[in-house]
Specification:
Length: 172
Amino acid sequence: MNEGRTYTIHKSKKSLVDRFMTARDSLRRSLEDTSHRLEIVGEVKDVQILNDARSSDLLSTRDSFKCIVKPIVWIAATTPHERDYALIEKYVKYKVKCIVVYGTNGEDMKYKLEHLVEHFSSTRTLEDAVKVAFKTCSKGDVLIYSPSCVPHDDFRNFAERGNAFLQYSKQL
């Protein structure tokens, strides 16, 4: 009865999930092309280590969190300046399992974010933060150093602190 007829099936639009995955992959590729920005340091005991030392604000850190699918152990730096943690609360709640903050004046971060994670620690130095953070990692986690503030500590710029993180993480 329908012989000789051709039926055209219209291509469906990509689903929201497909568009999200494509956008995330695109963001990851653009960030990985920058030094000290989602830079893969290596893997130790099935924990992936990422250097995101170039992240100098919460929005940069949030973009990094968007690219990571596995549970996150986040090393952050303190700053004497006010920060609006509402920008990242949702990502911290659903993706970050542990925060290790180094430096002084970490009380504001602790007060705003501690209740969203399983574990929160403070240390004085980046070297200590790397050691503490790695101890809290489980198989399959991602350990990321994303300071989310401009350098005000012992480092002059993001490259210096990124290189220090590389050195400390290689000692694991």
